[in-house]
Amino acid sequence: DTEVTQTPKHLVMGMTNKKSLKCEQHMGHRAMYWYKQKAKKPPELMFVYSYEKLSINESVPSRFSPECPNSSLLNLHLHALQPEDSALYLCASRPGTGGSPLHFGNGTRLTVT
Amino acid sequence: GESVGLHLPTLSVQEGDNSIINCAYSNSASDYFIWYKQESGKGPQFIIDIRSNMDKRQGQRVTVLLNKTVKHLSLQIAATQPGDSAVYFCAERSLAGGTSYGKLTFGQGTILTVHP
Q1: What confidence tier does B99 reach under pLDDT thresholds 50, 70, 90?
Q2: pLDDT digits (tens, 9 = 90+) for A43-63
Q3: Of the residues A26, A34, B11, B57, which has the maximum number of CB atoms within 10 A of its CB?
Q4: Of the partner residues A45, A103, A106, the one whose CB lies closest to the CB of residue B103
Q5: Taking 60 as the threshold, does the pLDDT of residue B59 lie above it?
Q6: Torsion angle, CA of B96/A73/A40/A14, rounded to 10 degrees?
Q7: B101–A55 C-beta distance less than 8 A
């Protein structure tokens, strides 16, 4: 089991739906990340939060809206997605200082119909 | 642009053999490197890391080698087991503007298959 918990594990949504992905960690980590991973590809960075503030947005379309309500939670709000947005969405965290590895959750498998 | 890549997309070995997975990187400013293992249906799992001021680091059954001269990273797995079958990613950390935490960029991945 991973110490980064992501819900739901699977999500199917239509292009007009609004849904949210959730991520939670209780390791006291102060940096949290969203990555997107297509099949047979490496994870691609979307957003980075450090100390609950958005520090990196990798030019992600506005139909993806991140939110960090507190230091343990990270959400990704989805609206008006396209079928090509179907992917595995990974959340990760790390302590936030110095060089340290990211701890990943097992992801949410998103299918947009 | 800067990239992290792998020489071999697939690697098949027999149980008990040693495995070597290679990675080339191009960002000379990267200061920290990580190897991850990703099994089907799971997120990437940390294996071992190395800082740019080192050239070798050993863990349990795994060794990472860093050659900054040729910008090459490798992961050696000793006595490979069927449970080692997975996709292996190298990743490099580069410091991004406006943050001291940097961002992690992943290489393309190598599929390791271990035959009993």
Answers
A1: low
A2: 999 999 989 999 989 999 999
A3: A34
A4: A45
A5: yes
A6: -120
A7: yes
